[in-house]
Design goal:
single chain, alpha+beta, Trefoil (Acidic Fibroblast Growth Factor, subunit A), 12-stranded antiparallel sheet, two-stranded antiparallel ribbon, 3 helices, 16 strands, CF161, Cilia- and flagella-associated protein 161
């Protein structure tokens, strides 16, 4: 008799009434969040839909970079890295919708493998020394890199000396992120990628779509992408960004520090992306079609 069932299978036991109300409340809360667009999947879709909006890069007719130009910073890759572009590493926690959708500061950056001109990868060359918009950018001249307006928030690429509390998450090197203050921490300068020609090019106009070094003015460290440190982001597997100068046995900067400030092809064929690092006076261009521009 001890093992005899004393109730039918459809008899409710325990706190069945309380469990039923909790289930109804959970479903009601879910439907309300869905209606307001507050579900995690909806936030991710909203973020990607807005931050991946195509952007028209500047068309440079004279082959030079100017203040106010909209460019994309591309690293052509190396042994452990694919071709990647400096990108805003924003997630749903850094997104605010009031009063308008935008990225909150501070926000991280990463090197994304998607070479596409969009809100996430476009940066504006901004003057910090009073140079008028449209004037030519020169080697060793200080400038700032600013994200576009709108959801990108108009934030500045910033870095500072590393400390125990503030450093890159994986490599523990000098951190690079986006902040809303245009202070000295957001000042950068461009130098020639070849140390033997660096002095000769000092003060000369910076050509577009060639390999250069982007140096942080305060710390004198070069912007770098790390192929052996992979981040899992909302947009997939990407490389970690840092400000650190990597030197080879000849005291020359390695390809981790080589960057191309890409513009749009004047012929309208898309993004101009050089095939390999070459001198500014003699470079070969490879046009990569980009229907998003």
């Amino acid at each position: 008799m001890a093992h005899t069932r004393t109730y039918r299978t459809n008899v409710r036991i325990g706190n069945w009434n309380e469990d039923l109300h909790l289930e109804e409340d959970s479903m009601k809360e879910y439907l309300e969040k869905k209606e307001r667009g507050e579900l995690t999947a909806q936030k991710v879709d909203f973020l990607k839909q807005n931050i991946l909006t195509p952007v028209n890069l500047t068309v440079t007719n004279d082959g030079l970079l100017h203040f106010g130009d909209v460019v994309m910073l591309v690293n052509v890759g190396g042994k452990k890295r694919e071709c990647s572009a400096l990108s805003i590493n924003a997630d749903i926690n850094s997104l605010t919708r009031i009063p308008a959708p935008s990225i909150q500061a501070p926000c991280g950056v990463s090197a994304g493998k998607g070479i596409q001109a969009c809100k996430r990868t476009a940066f504006i060359i901004t003057s910090v020394d009073g140079s008028p918009e449209g004037s030519t950018l020169h080697f060793e001249q200080s400038f700032a890199l600013k994200t576009t307006s709108g959801i990108a928030g108009g934030l500045y690429l910033t870095s500072d000396l590393r400390s125990f509390q503030k450093c890159a998450k994986m490599s523990r090197l000098q951190e690079v992120n986006l902040d809303d203050g245009g202070s000295f921490l957001s000042w950068w300068k461009i130098v020639h990628f070849d140390p033997q020609e660096r002095l000769e090019y000092e003060g000369q106009p910076v050509p577009a779509n060639v390999s250069v070094l982007i140096i942080h003015c305060k710390t004198n460290q070069a912007l770098a992408v790390l192929g052996d440190h992979v981040l899992w982001t909302t947009y997939g597997k990407e490389y970690e960004m840092t400000a650190h100068t990597f030197l080879d046995s000849h005291k020359a900067e390695q390809d981790n520090n080589h960057w191309i400030l890409c513009t749009c092809d004047p012929a309208g064929n898309g993004l101009v992306l050089p095939n390999q690092p070459q001198a500014a006076s003699d470079h070969k261009e490879l046009t990569q079609a980009n229907p998003g521009i």
